[in-house]
Amino acid sequence: MTTLAGKTVLLTGASRGLGVYIARALAREQATVVCISRFKSGLDVTCAQIKALGGKAISIPFDIKNVTELSTLKQQINKVVGPVDIVINNAGIEIYRDFVDYSLEDLQSILTVNLLAATELTRLFLPSMLERRSGHIVNIASLAGKKGVPYNSIYSASKAGLIMWTDAMRQELAATNTNISVICPGYISETGMTVDSRVPAPWLAGTSTPTDVANAVIRAIKQNKAEVIVNKNMLTENMTKLMFAMGQFFPEFVDAIYHCLDVVKLNRRRANAKTFATDQINIPAHDYGMYNKKS
Questions:
Q1: Catalytic residue among 21, 155, 258, 288, which?
Q2: Closest listed residue to residue 291, CA positions, set 19, 76, 281
Q3: Which of 134, 175, 233, 275 has the most CB atoms around it within 10 Å of its CB?
């Protein structure tokens, strides 16, 4: 898909964090963006920005954690804008905890939003893409899915699942004109957990801007990239790939690298602060009950 102009794009987690930057990038490509999120006020702001940049925007408040109702969402979207050309599974939940401190509700929330909702949305919209012999799925994963990180184990598991599912689906779709990509960002500046937790990312680990990630999404669609790692610059990205490759032979060695980079210390501090993120952006811990109904 060499151009996004005139294409209809379904974007989850569109009201905040990475979603806003991806929406802006899509607007510059003259796409029609169907913005999905629980937060209507944020959606209104995102849609206004899309229109100001020359794109078209439709706002649909919806909590994708309600996976049994996603078929209803699909019907609503088809009625309003017709077939969807691109699905970007961006919405995500991240909760830092010692594993023994997670509740069952925590586990279900993370796995449902980060993995199950993405696969179900794709299952619903993929048949139309296959029928029209055109379409693209983009999954926003994380470097945490390439190498598990402590005190964020369930998030790592959900993103690893997203990466492996994307890999399997790419092979399954190889003979079609429908494509699938996965984006794996590392630490991100300006928005999300790195900023809102007030716990800076390890300097040597590399930090990218949300604009870098949004540009990677556009590049993945236009160039049909299977997987894009986003981590500061080309040198850092290649070093990251080499480290993951070495981890297949020497996992304990990469564990040691993570310790040297202070990844473990960073995540322990976040776990102690009981921070978590939703829709790709951090929410203060005292507001957790507003969104998850947890005491």
A1: 155
A2: 281
A3: 275
Q: Give the count of alpha carbons within 13 A of 187, CB side only.
A: 21
d(CA 144, CA 184): 8
In order of 30, 157, 264, the CA distances from 112 in angstroms are 31, 12, 26
Residue keyed to tokens 């294409």: 7
3-state helix, strand, coil in the chain (%, to 5): 55, 20, 30
Q: Provide the H-helix boundaries in 173-284.
A: 193-196, 210-223, 234-249, 251-260, 263-272
Residue whose structure tokens are 């610059």: 233
Which strands make up the sheet holding 276-278, listed edge to edge?
A: 93-95, 276-278, 281-283
Report residue 242 as tokens: 């080499």
pLDDT range class, residue 277, cuts 50, 70, 90: low
What six digits make up the tokens of 174? 């190889």
Position 278 pLDDT exceeds 80: no
C-alpha torsion angle, residues 155, 158, 160, 165 (rounded to 10): -160
What does each C-alpha distance from 97 to 2, 64, 102, 274 come to in angstroms?
42, 23, 6, 7
Let me know: does 63 contact 80? Beta carbons within 8 Å.
Answer: no
Report the alpha-carbon distance of residue 281 to residue 93 in Å, rounded.
8
| Residue 155: active-site member | yes
Contacts of range 257-261, beta carbons closer than 8 Å, 24 or more positions apart:
258/147, 258/149, 260/204, 261/202, 261/204, 261/205
Residue 153: CB atoms within 10 Å:
18
As given in the structure block, the two tokens for residue 158 are: 């959900």
135-185 confidence digits (pLDDT tens): 999 999 999 999 999 999 999 999 999 999 999 999 999 999 999 999 999
